[in-house]
TrEMBL record:
This is Minichromosome loss protein Mcl1 middle region domain-containing protein. Residues 740-749 have a biased composition (Basic and acidic residues). GO terms for molecular function: chromatin binding. Residues 301-340, 740-772, 858-895 are annotated as: Disordered. The lineage of its organism: Eukaryota, Metazoa, Spiralia, Gnathifera, Rotifera.
Length: 895
């Protein structure tokens, strides 16, 4: 029996550590007290810290304590005076590990952080990838490795300097919190053989660090209890393991012989070695007690190398416990005892080939997830958050709350036996499902039939429900057998869709269903996914591959408010699937949420929805500061943010204007309204003006190719008044050449298709003179040119959008054709305005835009010298205009 001594009044997790000089050992417990003991006299000093203390570490004259206050508390040592806290979290600190001057912190909000205590800047390094609370931390300082155990069922090894994941072992039991975990999984390093020891159920697995394969396994067949911790002695000849039933075993590292067994009423939860006396350690129990153990008598016994018989028995024992997929199994004999004759028997090329085979391991596929739901390992979490409401899951109940309370009151459902873990919410129904029991519940809370508002269905043949989604008239259930079962809201089974790979996520919009699944095994540390877009109402099926950033995962997918498909990766890249004219989906990168969050000094954004109407791109998010998921209490606040597109040099004026233009083109459902046309013209004119100011005339000409006739007139006027005469002439000449070519093509098409219509006889009034008759002929020819003028050819890609103009008609008696010819200038190409035989059209937006451009130029030309230059340019325009009028009159006479 362990000779335990009571230290804390409240039972629970108790932590213990030694000072560097070994003169004191310190304990903390669930009563919120810290006890400082002198090693020789056991004289104690009490320090009141908080309501609960979970873990502690001591460094020189400072105590670091993880409490229930969601922060890392700092106390002076040995008096315990309160000092300013170093870092705050959203959940309590669950694990601490001190190595040299580096402090490693593990929290219950899935974070692992490293702080350099000698650096006053308090810069932190993050080790990401955890999906549940952190159980334990351990550092191998020589190799610069950090090992972590997590409630998500995995043990991870990180490179401290590079902050990269080296290896992940999915070997421990999953749990949703530390209190409900079957084991504390406190791991340790065997620094003699460079192996990692992991307690797995009732055995300890040893993984060598070269290829990260399991080398040997320790198991006591007489004990079926779970192991809490493993710890190697400083002398590197023994290791200690503790079981949850209170048994403590001291075991020889080489022979796996049990040197001594101790027992106690409660499980040993923490252990610390005396840095001065290496043959002595102190442990603490779940009852708030501590005990000293001396192992000097076991160190005095000679440890002989095992005989050949023992080697054979040990090799047979370890080989039985190792999985079939492991590359090789070796016994527990020290590698230095291997003879050189055995090495010579194995060729070097075979060793290289075998090492390459070992490195080729299957890629871990991403698990299925529901968008806008928090981690399934949390005890209290969000099952769903959408525009209608939120579904929250507590330990024994589920609550459905609506954002608009006047639409429907909150609904509470008992969850003791059904264990619902998946859900979805729409305007007419609620769907809940359980992956454990295979039960699916549908509640039609807006049904007119009061007798049938709920119905359930159970899966069969070991088929597990992974995802559910609610359409307007359908329910989609995704199962583990790669099936999508479609049902009506009343429960009528309609069709069963098969997928090519395991399901990843699923979302719906109206009667459209978007499914993402694994297509094949990807490259190392990468995912290969495909999507299926199904329009149930129109019976339209579309599929394709989903591009992802290397070494990332999918964390959100869904529809925007306008029905476009978006998906978000863990790296922060937000992408969209755009419908092309060929009814295909083009993946486009939109923005990077992670970079924008770092600019605003935030941890990340929790994406809820996207609004992309009327050229706007707004995101509904929850701001996260130092956490991975939002908390249920207090209720999180939703923020609306507007992000720029992921363009290069987005801080410059050029990129910002390009971003605004792309938003107008990408995020507009209708391109026929006048507001869209005005916004597009305004943005293009700004881009044109910016290019002119920076003397990029070729770029300005390319921008003109995206303009319509109204915007082109403004561009020509701006170029003329800005002194870009060659650019204005280039735009005008190119347009005239395009008109001639298109006019000839249209004539050829008309002649080949149908004979030209007969012209009616024309009579010249006798009262008119010959000069007036010639002017009327010129004017009629000019009107014919304007009527047959084709539109500017714009690219047929995503930027070809028609325009509808609101026009104001002016009778012919107010303006004559002769006045138009006399006022025509190349700087204002009025011939591009659409005209009829007896009316002239003037666009309202053109008048307003002309006023704006003239106002801008008048504000810029304030000096007298600039005004003189403008007058000279206008005189040149008049001379050019005369030449143009002569050419037009000659062209009309020839016709």
């Amino acid at each position: 029996m362990l000779s335990v001594v009571s230290a804390h009044s409240t039972p629970g997790l108790t932590d213990i550590c030694y000072t560097k000089d070994g003169n004191h050992f310190i304990t903390c417990g669930q009563d919120g007290d810290i006890h400082v003991f002198e090693t020789k006299t056991d004289q104690v000093e009490h320090i009141r810290c908080a309501d609960q203390c979970h873990c502690l570490a001591v460094h020189e004259y400072h105590l670091f304590v993880g409490t229930n206050r969601n922060e890392l508390e700092v106390r002076s040592f040995p008096h315990g005076d309160s000092l300013p806290s170093l870092v705050h979290f959203t959940q309590p600190v669950s694990a601490l590990c001190l190595s040299s001057s580096s402090l490693f912190i593990g929290t219950r909000d899935f974070k692992v952080v490293m702080m350099n205590l000698n650096d006053d800047s308090n810069k932190m390094k993050y080790f990401d990838g955890h999906q549940a609370p952190i159980l334990a931390l351990n550092v191998y300082e020589e190799k610069r490795w950090l090992a972590t155990s997590c409630c998500d069922g995995s043990v991870r090894v990180f490179n401290i300097d590079k902050q990269t994941l080296v290896k992940q072992f999915n070997v421990i039991t999953k749990s949703n919190d530390i209190e409900t975990a079957s084991s504390l999984v406190k791991i340790d390093w065997d620094k003699t053989d460079h192996m990692l020891a992991i307690p797995v159920k009732n055995m300890v697995q040893f993984y060598e660090s070269e290829k990260w394969t399991r080398k040997k396994t320790y198991e006591n067949d007489s004990i079926d209890e779970v192991i809490n911790l493993v710890s190697f002695s400083p002398c590197r000849t023994l290791f200690i393991i503790s079981y949850v039933n209170g048994q403590l075993s001291i075991i020889n590292r080489l022979t796996f012989d049990i040197c001594m067994n101790y027992s106690s009423k409660d499980a040993v939860c923490s252990l610390a070695w005396n840095p001065i006396e290496s043959n002595r350690f102190t442990c603490s129990t779940m009852a708030g007690e501590y005990a000293h153990v001396d192992i000097s008598e076991y160190l005095a016994k000679p440890t002989s190398t095992p005989s050949d018989k023992d080697e054979a028995e040990m090799e047979e024992k370890t080989s039985d416990n190792i999985d079939d997929d492991s590359e090789s199994v070796s016994n527990d004999v020290d590698p230095t005892t291997t003879t050189t004759d055995d090495k010579e028997l194995i060729p070097k090329w075979f060793e290289r080939a075998s090492s390459m085979i070992v490195e080729t391991k299957p890629v871990e596929l991403q698990e299925s997830f529901q968008s806008t739901s928090t981690s399934k390992y949390l005890e209290s979490r969000f099952l769903l958050w959408n525009n209608i409401g939120a579904i929250t899951c507590y330990s024994e109940q589920i609550q459905i709350s609506f954002h608009d309370v006047s639409y429907h009151h909150s609904i509470t459902i008992d969850n003791k036996t059904d264990k619902y873990s998946i859900g979805d919410l729409s305007l007419s129904a609620i769907v809940l499902a359980s992956s454990q029991t295979g039960k699916c519940l549908c509640i039609l809370y807006q049904s007119w039939d009061s007798n049938m508002r709920e119905w359930t269905i159970n899966t069969e043949n070991n088929d597990k429900i992974e995802l559910v989604s609610l359409c307007e008239d359908f329910i989609a259930i995704g199962t583990s057998q790669r099936l999508i079962r479609l049902m009506s809201l009343s429960g009528i089974q309609q069709r069963i869709i098969r997928l090519q790979g395991p399901l990843v996520s699923m979302s719906s919009y109206q009667n459209q269903l978007w499914i993402i699944h694994h297509s094949t095994q990807g490259l190392p540390k990468e995912q290969a996914m495909s999507y299926v877009l199904l329009n149930i109402e129109n019976d339209h099926y579309q599929t394709g591959s989903l591009p992802l950033i290397p070494k990332t995962k999918l964390i959100w997918m869904g529809f925007s408010d306008s029905g476009k498909c978006y998906y978000l990766e863990k790296s922060g890249h937000l992408s969209m699937l755009r419908h092309t004219k060929g009814n295909e989906l083009e993946p486009l990168l939109i923005s990077n949420l992670k970079q924008e969050a770092e600019k605003n000094n935030l941890g990340s954004y929790w994406l809820l929805g996207i609004n992309d109407f009327n050229g706007k791109f707004q995101l509904r998010v929850i701001e996260l500061r130092g956490q991975s998921f939002p908390d249920l209490v207090p209720w999180p606040l939703v923020s609306i943010i507007s992000l720029p597109l992921a363009l290069y040099q987005i801080d410059t004026e050029k990129s910002q204007l390009e971003s605004d233009y792309l938003k107008i083109k990408l995020f507009n459902n209708s391109t026929d309204d006048e507001e869209f046309s005005n916004n597009e013209r305004q943005c293009l004119i700004k881009m044109f003006a910016s290019s002119c100011k920076s003397n990029r005339e070729y770029r300005a000409f390319e921008i003109c190719q995206l303009m319509d006739s109204i915007a082109l007139q403004l561009a020509v006027r701006y170029a003329t008044k800005s002194g870009k005469i060659s650019l204005a002439q280039k735009i005008t000449d190119e347009l005239i050449e395009q008109k001639k070519d298109q006019e000839q093509e249209e004539k050829l098409i008309q002649r080949s298709s149908s004979p030209p219509p007969a012209r009616p006889p024309t009579s010249i009034p006798s009262s008119k003179s010959s000069s007036s008759s010639s002017i009327s002929i010129v004017s009629s020819a000019f009107e014919e040119i304007k009527q047959t003028r084709p539109k500017v050819i714009t690219p047929t890609g995503p930027f070809s959008n028609p325009f509808r103009k609101k026009v104001i008609t002016i009778p012919e008696n107010e303006t004559s054709t002769t006045d138009e010819l006399s006022k025509w200038k190349p700087s204002v190409n009025k011939s591009r305005l659409p005209a009829s035989n007896k009316t002239t059209t003037i666009t309202t937006a053109t008048i307003q835009s002309d006023i704006n451009v003239e106002t801008i130029t008048e504000n810029e030309d304030n000096s007298l010298n600039t005004k003189r230059k403008i007058d000279e340019s206008e005189n040149n325009d008049e001379e050019i205009g005369k030449n143009k009028r002569n050419k037009l009159q000659q062209f009309a006479c020839n016709r």
